[in-house]
Amino acid sequence: MEKKLMLPANYNVMNEEEMTYTSGGDGFTAPFAVGWTIGAVISVANLIWGLDQTRTWIKNNKKNGENITDLAAKGINAAADYMGKSIGNAIVGVYTALNLTGWWPVTAIAWVTA
């Protein structure tokens, strides 16, 4: 048995530039993957930090028999006070609020068990 590579009759050899489109792209793929990974790590770290801060605040401010809406109103006021201190706090506060909202099942479990 002969081991020959049989090519179709209309086969054309591709030059190096054309091979870029068949090999998964050029050098831009890796930076996007690195950026996505860094963003994911920051997001998870922010989620853990936000959950810890929120649970600590709930433990320190929850009173027996207090209505959940009163506790939520106090929490919103405390978050607004935190974000009003500086631009950095505002950016972190908004990002954390969006992050906790996006991960709402995890956030809900953490708040209920606080």
TrEMBL record:
<keyword id="KW-0812">Transmembrane</keyword>
<keyword id="KW-0472">Membrane</keyword>
<protein>
    <recommendedName>
        <fullName>Holin</fullName>
    </recommendedName>
</protein>
<keyword id="KW-1133">Transmembrane helix</keyword>
<feature type="transmembrane region" description="Helical">
    <location>
        <begin position="28"/>
        <end position="49"/>
    </location>
</feature>
